[in-house]
């Protein structure tokens, strides 16, 4: 096939990879790829840094999505065109339930659609649901790696500040639509905020692709807004989970 628009890759470049690990951050993509054998950089363009590696003999892509739904939808669309069927997001997150601790790992079963991009794939009544088997693999991986983890619903917002009802901002103002929203999500047992899973889950479900999401907790917003946890430790735990989940899915 012709090269895809942004990644500039052809099907053959992926060597048959059917599974992609998709962190938001390009540097995290590199660190993940380096933990898998035979890692080679495929492309670095804009927020998309893609690597090909071999996990237990199976080709796997690691590709950063950048922050938010629009860029995530491009990475997922183009990787799907190149043959990828399974997308495992590994991110960072802010918890909003008091019982969740910094460094815990959260597995999302579904996401509140506080994004815009997912509405370009399916109407709002359509659920942003994770794939059952990908989620099951994430949970099994949490158990196998021994991390403290929680499973449940995530709020996935286009914006980091107003959409996640943050007041520690330049203006200190949150528009009316989001005033009180965090308390409502807490009441409705939402675990956390992040920024890509609503788009990822909606588009993958709508397109017949498989998606799961795991995130490491950087901050618990019931206690503080600015993280003081060791970011590397948080990343190590969530990455250990996503790599084990990938192994489990590839072994099926
Ligand atoms: O650490 P990543 O994967 O980027 O995920 C989270 O961190 C970013 C915000 O700081 C957003 O992308 C959010 O979803
Ligand atoms: O609070 C947080 C932390 C990381 N990422 C988010 O989107 N929100």
TrEMBL record:
The Nucleoside phosphorylase domain, residue ranges: 18-249
Gene3D superfamilies: Nucleoside phosphorylase domain (3.40.50.1580)
Record's subcellular location: Cytoplasm
Keyword Glycosyltransferase: yes
EC class name: transferase
Pathway linked to the protein: Pyrimidine metabolism; UMP biosynthesis via salvage pathway; uracil from uridine (phosphorylase route): step 1/1
Enzyme Commission no: 2.4.2.3
Similarity annotation: Belongs to the PNP/UDP phosphorylase family.
Role of this protein: Catalyzes the reversible phosphorylytic cleavage of uridine to uracil and ribose-1-phosphate.
Official protein name in the record: Uridine phosphorylase
Gene that this polypeptide is encoded by: udp
């Amino acid at each position: 096939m012709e090269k895809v628009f942004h990644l500039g890759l052809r099907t053959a470049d992926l060597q048959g990879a059917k599974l992609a690990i998709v962190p938001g951050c390009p540097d995290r993509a590199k660190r993940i790829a380096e933990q898998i054998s035979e890692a080679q950089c495929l492309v670095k363009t804009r927020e998309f840094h893609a690597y090909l590696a071999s996990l237990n003999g199976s080709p796997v892509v690691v590709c950063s999505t950048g922050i938010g739904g629009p860029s995530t939808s491009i990475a997922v669309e183009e990787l799907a065109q190149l043959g990828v069927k399974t997308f495992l997001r590994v991110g960072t997150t802010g918890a909003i339930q008091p019982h969740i601790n910094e460094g815990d790992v959260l597995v999302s079963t579904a996401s509140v659609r506080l994004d815009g991009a997912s509405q370009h794939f399916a109407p709002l009544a359509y659920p942003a649901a994770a794939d059952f088997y990908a989620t099951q693999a994430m949970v099994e991986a949490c158990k196998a790696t021994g991390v403290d983890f929680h499973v449940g619903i995530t709020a996935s917002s286009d914006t980091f500040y107003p959409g996640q009802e943050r007041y520690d901002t330049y203006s200190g103002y949150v528009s009316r639509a989001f005033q009180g929203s965090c308390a409502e999500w807490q009441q409705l047992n939402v675990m956390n905020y992040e920024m890509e899973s609503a788009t990822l889950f909606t588009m993958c479900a709508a397109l017949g692709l498989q998606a799961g999401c795991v995130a490491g907790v950087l901050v618990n917003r019931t206690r503080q807004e600015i993280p003081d946890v060791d970011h590397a430790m948080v990343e190590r735990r969530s990455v250990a989970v996503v790599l084990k989940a990938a192994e489990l899915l590839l072994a099926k």
